[in-house]
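Notes from the pairing session

We agreed to fold both candidates in a single pass and log them together. This is the raw record for the first candidate, unedited. Please don't reformat it; downstream parsing expects exactly this layout.

Candidate A
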Amino acid sequence: MIHSASPVFKTILRNICFLFAVMCLPGNRSVANNESVRFAEKANLALRRTAHHLLIANGDTLSAIPPVKQLDANTFSIRMEHVLDYAKLPGLLQESLKMQDITSGYNVAVLDCDKGELRLGYNFLELKQKDGVACQKRKNEGQCYQLQVSFIPQKQEANSGGQNWFMLSLGGALAGLGLVAWNKSRHRKITEPTQEALISPKLEFSKSYLDIQNQTLVSGNIVQQLTFRETKLLGLFARHTNQVLERDMILKSVWEDEGVTVGRSIDVFVSRLRKMLANDPHVKITAIHGVGYKMEVHS
């Protein structure tokens, strides 16, 4: 049985490799790439317009607006020197995004330029609340801030009939491969499920838990919305509680697969997570000098 299936197995593998090669041609990726470029351009314009009107609100019509930096596919940042009026920020930003027809949900973080510490921030859903954005009426000191907007990724739909045809062809080939593999596997030991398959969408630690699918953290009966990368980093810590994680390992697990490896990103995001976990006294993220970090969880 195994020997007779071997030529078929090889043929299906060759066909699948061919299909993947065709699907990965630049022409088939151009639509998705163009959408990403257009989104980045619109997000850039929205942040620049927001910065422009914040400057005007502070009586500044001459200062140059610094460039918008794209930190990853969904995160954009702009530097604000002494002119951040936090009370006006939510309305101006929402208005600017609406003008660019950006409907994605988002999180806003105001970071200190020197230490990268989170000073202020909100989720777009807070705009619909009766009391508005938290801390909106509080005065902020005149200093340098990084205004960072992280858009929540939306599920992508198929872009063209041609791509659907390729996916159907690939599905048929995979079905054939599965049938052959099943026939061969009857003579082999059943394999264990992968580690990822065993991971629950909700990770509990102490009196807190992380809902990975909805990107939310419940800590001390307080629900907090996380960004994609905050969820990824906290999930890594939650799966390795009371273990020392080296910086290189954290970077590769959380950032490198997106093509972004910024050394200080770890420190900035750990600082944010510490603030979010402050309501749970049994959880603490500790820096291990020269090595990395450890999330200590005590019962």
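Candidate B (folded immediately after A)
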Amino acid sequence: MSLLQAIFLGIVQGVTEFLPVSSSGHLAIFQNIFDMKTDGGLLFDVCLHIGTLAAVFIVYWKDIFKMIREFFRMCGDIIRNVKIFYRNRRYDEALRYHRIIHNNYRKFVLLVLVSTIPTGIIGVMGKDLISFASTTLIVPGVCLLLTGLLLLVADHCKDGKKIPKDISYSNGFLIGIAQGLATLPGLSRSGTTIAACLLSGFDRRFAVKYSFIMSIPAVLGAAVLELKDIGSETISGGLVTNCVVGAIVSGVVGYICIRTMLVVVRKKNFKGFSIYCFAAGLVAIIAHFIV
């Protein structure tokens, strides 16, 4: 793989990870129609994901920092409550327990954890199905049409007002299912999850924030699963350079695309992306019967 290819793949990763056009759908179409091999190796793939994760951390670093802080404070309160439980049992006392979820960031942490559960289950159980779906054009084509439809629905959703304290855990679980289903090639992860958030009545800005922050554990989990196979790859100086450049490019482009999505969602302007997904989906379906 050349440096120019690394830059190109970094741009593709940064754009399709955050804009609602489905990276997996486009890769499946390129591979099936043009016989393009866009896989740059496991290490390179992991580095691209690290780049886009860095973009999420840069845009939402204040929220992520507070969530991490509140997560450890929650763990501390749970430990203290366990001690209180045993003390009450042993000495027949009635000490009051600490309230675990008492602010928006603690609720946000728990909602993301709840969403991650169905995503992980679907990702693991549907791994073979997802791999098979990528070898044909009909599945990405149909899923791109569904993405276009979801984006139209998102554009016409009433403005919600829900922030973490107003959101139920069942909402978080259903959005996690949506993220898990979006592993199918052609279903945009960001488009599907943002649409699910808006249909659940989320505040528009929080819907984007929730969609991108909830992707962190999913992307990290996928990267960790890939890391175990990296040892079989030959690591050269050229590969390291490509990895670094690709990660930087995907991070910079991803940062721009996250900022773009904030504007798109706020102004209810998914129409252009929807038309593009319809067009790409139709091309894929037609190509399925021609190629």
